[in-house]
Amino acid sequence: MQRHIRTRAAIVTVALVAAGAVTVGVSQAAPEHGSKSAADRAAAKPTKKQIAALFDGWNKALQTGDSKKVAARYASDAVLLPTASPQIRTNHAEIVDYFDHFLLNKPKGEKIRSVINVLDSNSAIDAGLYVFQLTDPKTGEKRDVEARYTYEYEKRGGKWLIVNHHSSVLPAAS
Questions:
Q1: Is 97 exposed, middle or buried (0-12, 13-18, 19+ CB in 10 A)?
Q2: Contact (Cβ atoms closer than 8 angstroms) between residue 67 and residue 103
Q3: Which ranges of the chain would DSSP assign to H, the alpha helix?
Q4: pLDDT of residue 132
Q5: Spatial separation of the C-alpha atoms in residues 154 and 169, rounded to whole Å
Q6: DSSP state of 105
Q7: Confidence (pLDDT) at 161
């Protein structure tokens, strides 16, 4: 029995020494408090405000009327489930095609409610409700369309891109 206790004590002692050595190594390798390396800053999670600004940039791209500028905000393998089309868009050409038609309505979006989840330093999700003011290209009549949305963003090559965008007309309350 005493031999078992001595063996256990030896194992605990070795574990404590190893843990102490790792702790010393980590504290010596870590940068001084308050100073971050370029790699640490690059790996930092974005703020919710930074993610919210991605929609603002997308909305400004809409205002240009240039479908290619809007589509440039999407990753090459992005999926778009658009508000005003039953077709799922899964490549750059299809996304450009959607915006070629949608932009004829001179859309201007405004968020009503946003819920942002920053997943890590390279991905985030923004979901909520927005309203779009659309202008009929033939009559000039303006109308508002309320919709729900989800944008999934990924940082690729240092640039934030939309990898998944779903938008659908807000259903009537039940």
A1: middle
A2: yes
A3: 2-29, 38-43, 48-63, 67-71, 92-102
A4: 95
A5: 25
A6: G
A7: 98
Check if the beta carbon of residue 148 is closer than 8 Å to that of residue 170: yes
Query: Which of these, 83, 111, 110, lies nearest to 99 by C-alpha position?
Result: 83
What is the H or E stretch that residue 162 is in?
Answer: strand 159-169
pLDDT recorded at residue 174: 74
44-78 burial, b if ≥16 CB within 10 A, otherwise e?
Answer: eebeeeebbebbeebbebbeeeebebbbebbbeeb
List the chain residues with pLDDT less than 50: 2-33
DSSP class of residue 58 equals H
Q: Which amino acid is at 140?
A: G
* Per-residue confidence (pLDDT) for residue 8, from 0 to 100: 44
First to last CA, the chain: 71
Q: Which ranges of 30-171 does DSSP label H, i.e. alpha helix? A: 38-43, 48-63, 67-71, 92-102
pTM of the shown model: 0.75
> What's the pLDDT at 62?
97
> Which among 52, 168, 62, 169 is positioned nearest to 107, based on CA atoms?
62
Gap between the Cα atoms of 140 and 116, Å rounded = 35
At residue 29, the pLDDT reads 42
